[in-house]
Amino acid sequence: MTTTFETQRTALADVVAIPVTPFAADGSVEADVYRALLRRLIDAGITTLTPNGNTGEFYALTPAERRRVTELTVEEAGGGAAILVGVGHDVPTAVASALHARELGARMVMVHQPVHPYVSQAGWVDYHRAIAEAVPELGVVPYVRNAQLAGARLAELADACPNVIGVKYAVPDAAKFAAFARDAGLDRFVWVAGLAEPYAPSYFSAGATGFTSGLVNVAPAVSLNMIEALRAGDYTAAMKVWEQIRRFEELRAANGSANNVTVVKEALASLGLCRREVRPPSRPLPESERAEVAAIAAGWSI
Q: Strand 108-111 vs strand 139-144: parallel, antiparallel, or unpaired?
């Protein structure tokens, strides 16, 4: 029987939430708080979760912590949400993480961009093919941040691995996205706007049907309002949400996105939902900048 991955494809055409990973005072992963944050998302109507994403500080977690985060997510979701597990690093590590996700019952993995100073386009295909072939039962979603990658390379990968079903596209260029998607096959993949709400309207206009979100940790209703407007083709309504979240996302994107996770955790801390601590190379916001983030979070309908 050929796997069609229709359930997984549907899950990607949505708000793809990237949960934060909360840390306790001693620096360890705070499991109970993480569960509470997940439950808050699920209860609000979020149905797709990505443990071990960038907003979850993937690269700052140990292998054991990444496994634990995956386990907590699958346990807490309990079938109430689709799980897209972030995997990456070297090929054996990524494959081991994908196999672990499969053992737990997750049905999709997102492959972080290869972390290497020298990435050839053919090597990009080889990297993802090795991971996808190890878990043919799972839907595989490459995370594309390389503006040089050609859409034809994604098509080549999917020819070899039919379980490559979607793409998290995170190059900040809507025209490049439109061309990449068409060169790869617009209808062949589920296109997820990987730069979240700020880019969602422009990317939806070019063919995306889902978007990732870190903001959703703070205000799930805001992200859901955005996806509902975009699904309806109501770009006026979508841009009203865009205006609502603009400053928050500008703070996250400033200085090369240095405070991308920091701002989200600061907002959650202002609401009493988790500690503000992040791990190096990120840093918590200084006292002088916290009030603005707290005011934004307080102004949303949480």
A: parallel
Is residue 210 a contact partner of residue 13, using CB atoms and an 8 Å limit?
Answer: yes
Spatial separation of the C-alpha atoms in residues 30 and 44, rounded to whole Å: 21
**What secondary structure does DSSP assign to 201-219, as a single string?**
HHHHHTT--EEEESGGGT-
Instruction: Give the tens place of pLDDT for each residue, 109-164.
Output: 999 999 999 999 999 999 999 999 999 999 999 999 999 999 999 999 999 999 99
- The pTM (predicted TM-score) of the whole model is 0.96
- Which long-range contacts link 70-74 to residues 24+ away (Cβ below 8 Å)? 70/97, 70/100, 70/101, 70/104, 70/106, 71/104, 72/31, 72/34, 72/35, 72/38, 73/19, 73/38, 73/49, 74/104, 74/105, 74/106
Q: Cα(first)–Cα(last) distance of the chain, in Å? A: 45
